[in-house]
Amino acid sequence: MSYTHIVPQERVLIESYCLEKKSLSYIASQLKRSKSTINYELKRCKPYNALQAQLDYDAKR
Fold first, then answer.
1. Is 53 a member of any domain?
2. For residue 30, what are the CA distances in angstroms to 24, 26, 34?
3. A single Pfam family, by name (predicted)?
4. Which residue among 1, 16, 43, 50 has its CA within the 20 to 30 Å range from the CA of 8?
């Protein structure tokens, strides 16, 4: 089983879905990712910010 990292474009989509108050399940289905992946991503920063999440990801790489 291979793992693919969330790309910056997906982070922007996650941020926009959050601003629209979309559910975790909805976001996961739209991005074809598991709910746990989206949940982990949303925990990177609150409120979710795509740029800040990407900076956090880059710092941990």
1. yes
2. 10, 6, 10
3. HTH_38
4. 1
In a domain, 2, yes or no: no
| Residue 16 structural domain | 8-60
DSSP-derived letter for residue 51 is H
Q: Tokens 């996650």 appear where?
A: 14
pTM of the model: 0.90
Q: What is the pLDDT of residues 15-33, one digit of tens each?
A: 999 999 999 999 999 999 9
Tell me how far the alpha carbon of residue 38 is from its chain's centroid. 5
Number of independent structural domains in the chain: 1
CB-facing half-sphere around the CA of 54: CA atoms within 13 A: 12
Peptide bond into 8 cis (omega under 30): no
